[in-house]
Amino acid sequence: MTNIIAFKPRAAAADAEDPPPARASLGRIVGLDAARALAVFGMYYSHVGPWSEETGTWKSFLMDIPHGRSSALFATLAGLSLVLIAGGSRPKTGRPMRQAVVRIAIRSALLLALGSWLVAMGTSIVVILAYYGLFFLLALPFIKLRARTLAILAVVFGIAGPIVIQWFWSADTSWTEGFDAKDPLAMWSGEGVLALLVSGTYPGIAWMAYMFAGMAIGKLDLTKLAIQVRLLIVGPALALLGYGGAWLIGKLLPTPDTSAKDASWEAFDQAWSKALEGKDSANWTEEQWKAFDAEHVSIYDLMPKDAGTTGTGLDWAGLVAASPHSNMPFELAGNIGVAFTLIAGLVFLLGRFTKLRFWLAPLIAVGSMSLTAYVAHIAAVWYLVDHPANEVGYATGWRMWAVFVVVMLAFALLWKRFLKRGPLEYLMHWATLPAKLVK
């Protein structure tokens, strides 16, 4: 008599695992959409909202919160979304994974093209889409890595990236002109590969820390309460380490005497403003700027003597800064902490308290079409502020920010009643359909 034991293959066992409850899965989706909407509205504020006239007060602190953190939250969510396309905590394999990689590559190319086109149109906003397109491409080779490895990469880029940027600022970069002269992106929009990687507002060499951090938590099962709680502990801890560490070290560092340099800069700024008074220089070509510089060459004599020189070494005081868009390690850590906290908090709230989904439906709708919402405000600023029909333009401030937010909330909620995706999201979806042909 033979005893027959039915063995269950590993793959079958994995497939037999219970999927996350529909309620928890929906909570993750709407929670991430709500976080995207907050990121978009924060960038609205950074671009058209008011700036505090005070410094060092609670009012200025609250008004400065969106600056730098909104785009960082968006970048972290981009990394998370990248991993979700590839399967999230249960990565795809075989043909589905190959199709996902092609979809991501197509999205990257489209974002790179769209962002460069918007910059070339002459907007006053520093458009982040081209940077995101490059970030997606740079992240593709790492898409199969585990959460721990991705977290280590976030730390490495968060520390090494700023050092490379500091070195780039102090090194002789005269060679970059020749490089940009042959870079199609630089010739088209003025922002080439070097700007996207090192010298731009959102340099990839440092901002990949946000992407890898988002990819790391995308590898986790965000539907689980334990994961949410851990992120709600890690997030505030990182924020405290980043902002608190920068503040503490800043207090310990000696304060240099910059009175003479500040006076020189003030004189330079006044002369510069006077020379540009009454001139619309927002969309000047490189030739126009060269002609202006040649005509007002004496202005540059007012600059501090060490300004713009090379070979001065790392700026250690700047390296420990945490101010918005400083792109230094402490700012990166603090912003990642804020992103983790908001993402985990919204996923927890909207997963556990379903009634909130009704009250936050407009916010969730905006987040589900974040690309449309982002591009829409760039188009609005281009028409209302940069190139107004009446040649006067509208004043930015609380009113413009509030109008942008309310209009987008109403539009998104109405659109979602009839259609599944936003306008640009549909175009992105149709453009990626060829990925299904991948064998």
Gap between N and C termini:
47 Å
What is the radius of gyration?
Answer: 24 Å
Number of helices: 21
Please identify the structural class as seen in this structure: mainly alpha
Number of domains as seen in the coordinates: 2
Helix content: 55-70%
- Give a quick account of the main beta sheet: strands, pairing sense, barrel closure: none
Number of extended strands: 0
Shape: globular
Task: Summarize the helix and strand pattern as letters.
Answer: HHHHHHHHHHHHHHHHHHHHH
**Amount of beta strand:** under 5%
Low-confidence stretches: 1-18, 307-311
The average pLDDT score comes to 85
Describe how the helices and strands are arranged.
Elements: H1 10-15, H2 22-48, H3 58-64, H4 66-85, H5 94-120, H6 129-139, H7 147-170, H8 175-181, H9 184-189, H10 193-199, H11 204-218, H12 225-252, H13 259-276, H14 286-295, H15 316-319, H16 329-352, H17 355-359, H18 361-368, H19 370-386, H20 398-418, H21 423-431
TL;DR?
By secondary structure, the protein is mainly α. The chain has helices at residues 10-15, 22-48, 58-64, 66-85, 94-120, 129-139, 147-170, 175-181, 184-189, 193-199, 204-218, 225-252, 259-276, 286-295, 316-319, 329-352, 355-359, 361-368, 370-386, 398-418, 423-431.
Question: How would you portray this structure in words?
Answer:
This protein has 439 residues and is mainly alpha-helical. The protein has 2 domains: 352 residues, no CATH class; 35 residues, no CATH class. Helices cover 69% and strands 0% of the residues. It is built from 21 helices and no strands. It is globular, with a radius of gyration of 24 Å. It starts with 9 loop residues before the first helix and ends in an 8-residue tail after the last helix.
